[in-house]
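Ligand: adenosine-5'-diphosphate. Inputs:
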Amino acid sequence: MPDRASSLDHAKNPGALDLRNISEMALSHIADFVYVFDREGRFVYANKALLDLWGLTLEQAAGRNFFDLQYPHELAMRLQAQIQQVIKTGRQVKDETPYTSPTGREGYYEYIFNPYFAADGSVAAVVGSTHIMTERKRSEDAARRLAAIVESSQDAIVSKTLEGIITSWNQGAAALFGYSEEEAVGKPISVLIPQELYDKEEPEIIDHIRHGRRVEHFETVRLRKDGSHVNVSLTISPIRDEEGRVVGASKIARDITERKLAEEKLGRARQQADDAAAAAADAAERFRLVAEVTSLQIWTASSEGTLEWANQECANYFQTDLETQVLGSAWAQFVHPDDLSVTLDRWRVSLGSGARYETEFRLKRHDGVYRWFLVRAEAMRGPAGEITRWFGTNTDIDALKNAQNEAERSSRAKDAFLATLSHELRTPLTPVLMAAASMREDERIPRDAREQLGMMERNIALEARLIDDMLDLTRISRGQIHMRPKACDAHTLIRLALEMVQDDARGKGIRIEQHFAARHHGLVIDPARFQQVIWNLLRNAVKFTPAGGTITILTRNQPSAEGAPSLRVEVVDSGIGIDPAKLDKIFLPFDQGSLAGDHRYGGLGLGLAIARAIVDLHGGAITAQSGGTGRGSTFIVDLPGATAFTGESADPAEKARAGAPAEEQPEEAVSLRLLLVEDHESTLRVLSRLLTRAGHRVVAAGSIADARRAASIQPFDLVISDLGLPDGTGLELMEALRKTHGLGGIALSGYGMEADIERSREAGFIAHLTKPVDFQQLKGMLEEVAKDVGLHATGHPWAKS
Ligand code: ADP
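Predicted complex:
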């Protein structure tokens, strides 16, 4: 202590009391140790009691540290550290230790190290004092410490007599079992043991204890005050009296509920993992079996797309070493060269995007035969969604593919057949139709004979119409029907369609009423096709309405969300009606509703199918309504985008195309030099007569050779040519004449398919007319051409020939 140290300082004061001696004497008389260390932990002073303990003189001890004095190494280390701690912190250190001196004295010591401060406030020395503890104090201290430990322990620490009476009870026990110390002490330990366990456990534990043995980490179940069970781990030790006789037991109980739960959870997790592994092994085994017996080719590929594994079926198919000839990228050598680039491109796309791979290609079998396969692959993904590998299958679809090709071939053949058939059926109609038309106008033929001719003409036209329907149908089914929309007046087109059925209706005594109420009747539509739709509906109405009935055609506008209203056309008849169940079916090709097998009305059941296809292509809708059999029918056509029709086009061609009847032109007004090429003799004859009568100068040719000869001798304004000629096609002729003479032409053909028309246009024809030729249409065209070539020769020498 500083006080004591300062008194030591005074001792150096000359002329004062010899305090050094006095204090030395005083210190030597105390049984406790007093000593001083320098900053290095070396003794600079030790009182007599301490020197006696060591058996040294002060001179011998001075300058030594604990190590030099042979203190046990660990203790010396601790003491040395504590001295340094005091120097560093300037604070007191209190501790205790057992120590046996070199002189053989055993003891238990309490010591205090105090800092001795220099004038500058730093610690100049450490002053120590050690107190020798009595035996009693020691055991009291130990008991106090132990009690503190017991009390603060989380574990339940309980002691009991050999008879099982509880003698002590800590906080941990109170927390674990729910009894307070007062409640527990004096009670039998059996209150904590479930009935069914008592006989099984307690006698054995007591037996152990009596024999002085410990029971360690014994896991069991104990009862709480509230009757609930708790999992505990028990460690039980015997308690002995002074003579060493076992008088009781101390018991440490640890709550292991959490651990038990964790263990159970772990057990379950292990079980699950085991089950999953077993299931996976099972699945793998099943997969292996499937892969072995299946006729599918199965393979897996890495995420980069190289083949890693292929099943036996692959080996069978290629009959080669899978390892070297198929796996990796080698498989590509078996893909048909024509399919390879598409196959690889698609594979790359899938590898890049992870999208399912699905394509068809041909693979070469071991015998060199290529067979079609449907190849599919699916990406297998890892936990983060990354592709781990690809799983693929190849399905042999060769038979299917061949059947499909066959079906496509036969469908093409059917269309070709229908086209040929219609051509064959139409060609003979042309001369008949034209002859009838010309004779009907011939004043020299008696009137009644001319009426008969009119009947013939109408019937032939009807037959031609059926053939057209068949052709239309093949076009619709192949998506080859194209609309040529232009601005039209719907009312004009409806009137034209009405004119076409007027005669038949009049003949049957059917009245036709018209209510054109639509104010917006301008539409952008294909006029010919629209007219065809309305004509079909009117024709059916006339056909299915008995004599004396009525047909009403009406138009009106329906408002629409898109702005422009739609135009609604309704054709209402008082005829035989339609079975409501058949209302939607009648729009299917070849469906004749309830009339199937009834030959009274004729027809092929194509009209409505074609009408619906046309209306659909215009973005409209067609529906049928009927109150039932005998109650008449209503057909409704809705077409979007109706506008007020302003455009009476100034251009007569436009007008003609819009369906307005072309103004009657005097026949003498136009005269063209025409080269007419046709190998069908009677057609050639009739046509050239009609054209000549219309005021044109016609040179007739039966072959390409004839035509080219004629063209080399004299100039022509236009060529009118059949396409099927004995020495080539009209297309070749047109191309040649266009090149050599700059001529244009009109093609005549029984073939009216879109592709045929396209080919004519390419060859240089300005128009393509389908046989039987509508002579009025041909005449109209020639007038247009005449205007173009600047001929308006009213006084032309051949005009009246
Ligand atoms: P087709 O008239 O050549 O049989 P459509 O396709 O024009 O072919 O008509 C299909 C069927 O719809 C007809 O066979 C008939 O049963 C029924 N149908 C069409 N229009 C009417 C109508 N106005 N009244 C009664 N039935 C009709």
